[in-house]
Amino acid sequence: MAAVTDIRAAGGVAWRPAAGAVEVCLVHRPRYGDWSLPKGKLEPDEHPLVAAVREVAEESDVRAVPQVRLPSARYRSEGRPKVVDYWSMRAVANGGFQPGTEVDEVRWLAVDDAIRLVSYPHDAEVLAAFAALAPVTATVALVRHAHAGMRATWSGPDTARPLDDEGWAQARALADLVELVRPARLLSASARRCVQTLDPAADRLDLPIEICGDLDEPRPGQQRDERALALAARLLELAGAGGQAAVCSQGKVIPGALERLTGRVGEDFNTPKGGGWLLAFAGDGLLAAERL
């Protein structure tokens, strides 16, 4: 008997400021006669975060910036197990909702009112988790440079080692995620492979890439802890400025920087080439770090 695979879906708690508090977005689906959080199934090979932002836009016509990973909902649908991944998202634009066959009404409500209105307990649990979050003041996509061949086979200076074909494919995939954050700044370590990793995102966003030595891995005579501290300090500086940014650094310093920011020493923060993290800050503290 073939194994039953999960139905994968994604969505979000889209929110906006309202009279000193926040309102969240719910959608009404006439097919089911229910009120729920906007969500939908993943396309083939689609990243869940990409799907979450896309589905929120398609169902509610709200463009939003993802911030914090929320609890996933698990239940059965059409006789199969279904997993829905959720993120909190700050609404930044609304194209003007038009009723359709999938969603015929959108409401913005206070969180308590939304919890009372939703038709399913799992939606209420996701909203309760959102309500417990501290307000997010800054979001940073922190990525490690993409694949750049082997250091041992590169004859030139290591800082000049470029991305290979695999690395360019990873950089283009990362651009899909970086674009979701809507960064106002792109910052890169000085190594060529780090700058190139952000090139596809820079082209899409029409932003310059700022070269920053604070993001570099240790050079001869430097300590890894010293460089990790410099990266952590730079991330906190970006957080203090508010808004959104994207940063490309290196594998020897990212784990140490995240240990310092989270206070979780010994946790696995190793980051594969072409991988990264979505960091959400509340004031001068890290609120959440979720793998991309």
TrEMBL record:
<dbReference type="InterPro" id="IPR015797">
    <property type="entry name" value="NUDIX_hydrolase-like_dom_sf"/>
</dbReference>
<dbReference type="InterPro" id="IPR051325">
    <property type="entry name" value="Nudix_hydrolase_domain"/>
</dbReference>
<dbReference type="GO" id="GO:0006754">
    <property type="term" value="P:ATP biosynthetic process"/>
</dbReference>
<feature type="domain" description="Nudix hydrolase">
    <location>
        <begin position="5"/>
        <end position="131"/>
    </location>
</feature>
<dbReference type="InterPro" id="IPR020084">
    <property type="entry name" value="NUDIX_hydrolase_CS"/>
</dbReference>
<dbReference type="Pfam" id="PF00300">
    <property type="entry name" value="His_Phos_1"/>
</dbReference>
<dbReference type="GO" id="GO:0004081">
    <property type="term" value="F:bis(5'-nucleosyl)-tetraphosphatase (asymmetrical) activity"/>
</dbReference>
<dbReference type="InterPro" id="IPR029033">
    <property type="entry name" value="His_PPase_superfam"/>
</dbReference>
<dbReference type="GO" id="GO:0006167">
    <property type="term" value="P:AMP biosynthetic process"/>
</dbReference>
<dbReference type="InterPro" id="IPR000086">
    <property type="entry name" value="NUDIX_hydrolase_dom"/>
</dbReference>
<protein>
    <submittedName>
        <fullName>NUDIX hydrolase</fullName>
    </submittedName>
</protein>
<keyword id="KW-0378">Hydrolase</keyword>
<dbReference type="InterPro" id="IPR013078">
    <property type="entry name" value="His_Pase_superF_clade-1"/>
</dbReference>
<dbReference type="Pfam" id="PF00293">
    <property type="entry name" value="NUDIX"/>
</dbReference>
